[in-house]
Amino acid sequence: MVKTIRKVKTPGGVVLKGKPIRASRSEMSEVVLPATTNPLGKLLGGRVMHLVDIAAAMAASRHANSYVVTASVDYIDFRNSINVGEFVVLKSQVNRVFHTSMEVGVKVFSENPLTGERKHTTTAYVTFVALDAATREPKPVLPLILKTAEEKRRWREAGERRKVRLAMRYKTQRSKD
User: Any idea which fold 7-176 has?
Assistant: First the structure.
């Protein structure tokens, strides 16, 4: 059972009201030009990753109403290529808020400009930390208001990914010691 949180107190006792997921949703598009493709006319994976980071940062910043920085990229899956001349369309939204961090999900599509046909090409999960504008230190983020079954499912799955991410981080730190 997912509890819908509408308010949270900061350590200083300030109450933060929640924000719906729809407030963070972002979409961006651009045409794929030859300068960003490989010799086969396919959009470079590194360019897709760059666009994913931008689209995800837009969603995180919209939710937090602050500057954000990328903390990690948990997962990126390239399913289909995007051809020169097609549009690349990125859709992003905050999946879950923790304390100062947020997981953002990004779906990438190719769109044929002549037929309008869209194909899902890439999925990614990116974690951001919100920063205070004055101190540039991490700051608490507004909680999410979950409304739909889909939003609740994404929220739950983000929690599971975070457990894995943190376990991997601590495993890596221990192996360096």
Answer: Thiol Ester Dehydrase; Chain A (3.10.129)
The ranges assigned to domains in the chain are 7-176
Interval 79-129: pLDDT, tens: 999 999 999 999 999 999 999 999 999 999 999 999 999 999 999 999 999
Task: Report the C-alpha gap between 111 and 118 in whole angstroms.
Answer: 4
